[in-house]
């Protein structure tokens, strides 16, 4: 029979119980014991859900109070020295607070220390804690939690399959500290502990251990490919069956590496890379099982069970009992339970499946394949088919005008009329800015008063007029402050925006919002991404009245502020019935209308933020260019309709631009503001090397700290910038939006920034 399983379940809880429990614990409002109890309750509930759905195994090892990669670091005793954990490591019992200190810098007990770096897990919005690797580092089994959780599951009568980040992916995700060295030199030490872990699990009668190796879907250097073979030869000695799990893409040139591993099973992602299935099966040895990830673990759409069954039938014939079915990756990346969405309309709801619903999909698909479908399975199959037919035909999804407009586009639509050099002349005339013009990135402090006003309006405790009046007061305040500071290009401050994507999604047609569709972003932080359901269009202007009002308060140019199409796409659940490119261009066209209306309302500087441009990059370099082409085109589509004299800004805040500098230049924004202050302007080298032709505002101070930046320091940074970029193309601005800061911090910081700009004007 076909085996059904999952790679992991969301741990945050349907009501974000884990968030509440950990935050209460950190704040000293809840005991350690209460936190542990909450953890246990959640694990039991999640196993119960998997058991009730009829899965053959429940997943153990996917639970974490903070992060599953951090769990492995703790398991291996890989705790940086500054956390003073050598006694705990020696005892083999690293304290939970030590893990929290690694994650957050502090915990209810133990000395605070600088937290470990956090970064995005492959191409997801989930952030993991980066393992810190030292030359000659030693590893030792240093935590019992995993084994305790196995006991816990078994005591309740569940059949656990253990899941753990694999040794090579753990090293791959790690960063070397101190002298740079080859991370693979640490592999043997890491494997020693993995072998010990596997032996311990075998003693607990664990049959299957899933080792997550998503590094296998990336471009791996030859030495790493070879290390895979070496590593798994060592691990096979342990008396458990290993399943190596690849996901987030195809194995590509790692296909033979993966299929030749001496392991009992392999999991592949058939959602992102359906074409690889036959190739993998051809290469599998006759005793190996293949787990096929057929249900999308990265998105919220209901599966077409009938279609999947057809696709799987011939594979079932070839694999027989060696076939396992699963979601494509851990369900960590989707919301927990659709049933909680009592206010979502029935039609939309019928098109969706969250983690709990996906459990049922896996099980039903398994039974359909095995010809042992129950009446309930038959109903699920019929309901899925019906819902998907309805979705395909729905007028809510398909808007002729949007599709026709997209079809009519010509290359000219994504090009400004004149080249930058000519536009710059028109813009100088129009804006009459001093050299080294000063501006900010958009948001000003989101005070408690602002949040309270927005909340009251959302809860219908404030009527529109009162709300709008209050927001205008906030805008007027921000404008007055900027005038007093003598900033050159002003912003309205974004007081009305809850979130830079949600704000636009709520006003665009084609978007839907859930109430409880939370997905873990990092630690206790969750995000609730909008769902792009159908063709996107803009029924009415979204930001124009605010910008127009703000402009009416000042003679200085007021910058209009929009979130770019790629960022809106990247931070949403995207429809799966057309290419992402198409959806992105639809968003771009909606924004293009907004840009045109802003321009028509007399706004002569418009910023379109694209902080997520870089994170949209595919995991394989060979696919980068195709992505960048449509991403750049989408940005351009949104802005290219304006006159020469209208100045287009964009903003990005990731420090690694070097490898996409060509695409950044291709955006052809008149001005780009970027995060550089922490990298000491080094970033600008890439712009210089590329001979980046347009204007740049390298962030002169780091908004992430409350400290007031020094005038002389900012002048020095700009002087470094001047070595690389000519004065007439440099702007002076902070490195990101100021919404997380307080006015008491912002005002002195900006006063110094303006002083720095004025000092530069005297000298250059
Ligand atoms: N305009 C946005 C702000 O200032 C940009 C946010 C961002 O870069 N992520 O808040
Ligand atoms: Zn930013």
From TrEMBL:
Which reaction(s) does the protein catalyse, per the Swiss-Prot or TrEMBL entry?
Answer: 5-methyltetrahydropteroyltri-L-glutamate + L-homocysteine = tetrahydropteroyltri-L-glutamate + L-methionine
Stated role: Catalyzes the transfer of a methyl group from 5-methyltetrahydrofolate to homocysteine resulting in methionine formation.
Which residues bind L-homocysteine per the record? 441-443, 494, 609
Record-linked InterPro entries: Cbl-indep_Met_Synth_N (IPR013215), Cobalamin-indep_Met_synthase (IPR006276), Met_Synth_C/arc (IPR002629), UROD/MetE-like_sf (IPR038071)
Q: What Gene3D superfamilies has UniProt attached to this entry? A: 3.20.20.210
| Chain positions recorded as Zn(2+) binding sites | 651, 653, 675, 736
Q: Which UniProt keywords apply?
A: Amino-acid biosynthesis, Metal-binding, Methionine biosynthesis, Methyltransferase, Repeat, Transferase, Zinc
Positions of the Cobalamin-independent methionine synthase MetE C-terminal/archaeal domain: 436-758
> Residues that bind Zn(2+) 1, according to the entry?
651, 653, 675, 736
Show where the Cobalamin-independent methionine synthase MetE N-terminal domain sits.
4-316
Instruction: Name any cofactors this protein relies on.
Output: Zn(2+)
Question: Could you give the cofactor binding note from the entry?
Answer: Binds 2 Zn(2+) ions per subunit. Binds 1 zinc ion per subunit.
Q: Which domain of life does the protein's organism represent?
A: Bacteria
**What positions does the entry give for L-methionine binding?**
441-443, 494, 609
Quote the EC number: 2.1.1.14
Q: Tell me, what is one Gene Ontology molecular-function annotation carried by this entry?
A: zinc ion binding
- Native organism is Vreelandella salicampi
The record, for SUPFAM superfamilies, names: UROD/MetE-like
In which pathway is this protein known to take part? Amino-acid biosynthesis; L-methionine biosynthesis via de novo pathway; L-methionine from L-homocysteine (MetE route): step 1/1
Set out the biological process GO terms recorded for this chain's protein: L-methionine biosynthetic process; methylation
Q: Where does 5-methyltetrahydropteroyltri-L-glutamate bind?
A: 16-19, 120, 125, 525-526, 571, 615
In Swiss-Prot or TrEMBL terms, this protein is called 5-methyltetrahydropteroyltriglutamate--homocysteine methyltransferase
Q: Which Pfam families match?
A: Meth_synt_1, Meth_synt_2
Membership in a protein family? Belongs to the vitamin-B12 independent methionine synthase family.
Top EC class per UniProt?
A: transferase
Per the Swiss-Prot or TrEMBL record, the active site comprises 704 (proton donor)
